[in-house]
Amino acid sequence: MTYTLVLLRHGESTWNQQNLFTGWHDVPLSENGEREARAGGEALRDEGLTFDKVHTSVLLRAIQTADLALAALGQLWLPVDRSWRLNERHYGALQGLDKKQTAAKHGLEQVKLWRRSYDVPPPPLSPDSPEHPRHDPRYRKLAPDVLPGSECLADVVARVLPYWHDAIVPDLRAGSTVLVVAHGNSLRALRKHLEHISDADIAGLDIPTGIPQRLELNAELEVESARYLGDASAVEAAAEKVRRQAG
What are 20's strand-pairing partners? Predict the structure, then answer.
């Protein structure tokens, strides 16, 4: 018995385009991001994939990516579940700041520590900040103490895995082919778990925007094969673009 899981990072957002820390701040796709999302859907179509279920975060850029990809695939009618647990990592007080300017101010090593260390979060937002998620109506039914003012990747792993076990795994076990449309860090958290990537090695994992990755899982939900769909040079160029963001 094998299971098919496809992971898709949202297309370029307007804040990606401006090289700003985004996190939980809700911004739309850029025009280029819309093209990436459609191209991702076309790659899924060319692969001949038929899905049964889609999971996304509650952030607009992931929702738009899912809709555009599914439209290109011809499967816009698919049932979709959305969860805050698939949101991007919360970048705390860095949200809205230019990545290169932040590196110039604090030093590349400090920014790299905030961006890529497994267990060091950026400076947190105050609970009184209007940017804190406790003031966002989409999270109003959640206990305030589960809503972060900042997160490291270890925190993202801790919030993503319950959703993996409680929502995505049951769909896979039921025989569904599943598409997850989320964010760089929520997908890094999921891949860390699935591929048994160490705390140190996860820092080197870069996930390109808008390019689907197909995973085949065995009966124990371990990865038997994983590959990006599309031209290998285009995939590497997109991953390199992610690596260059902090300067």
Answer: 98
Residue 242 has what pLDDT?
Answer: 74
Residues annotated as catalytic are 10, 88
Spans in the chain with pLDDT lower than 70? 245-247
How high is the pLDDT of residue 247? 53
Residues with Cβ within 8 Å of 145's Cβ and at least 6 positions away in sequence, in order, are none
Query: Which amino acid appears at position 9 of this protein?
Result: R
Q: What is the DSSP string of 174-225?
A: TT--EEEEE-HHHHHHHHHHHHT--TTGGGG----TT--EEEEE-TTS-EEE
Alpha-carbon gap, residue 223 to 2, rounded angstroms: 10
**Tens digits of residue pLDDT in 64-122:** 999 999 999 999 999 999 999 999 999 999 999 999 999 999 999 999 899 889 999 99
* Distance of alpha carbon 217 from alpha carbon 5, whole angstroms: 7
- Classify residue 92 by its DSSP letter: G
Residue 240's pLDDT is what? 79
CATH 3.40.50.1240 fits 3-231, yes or no: yes
Residue 176, Cα to own-chain centre: how many angstroms? 21
Residue 202 near residue 190 (C-beta atoms within 8 A): no
Beta bridge partners of 54: 80, 179
Cβ atoms within 10 Å, residue 218: 12
Given a contact cutoff of 8 angstroms between Cβ atoms, the answer to whether 207 and 123 are in contact is no
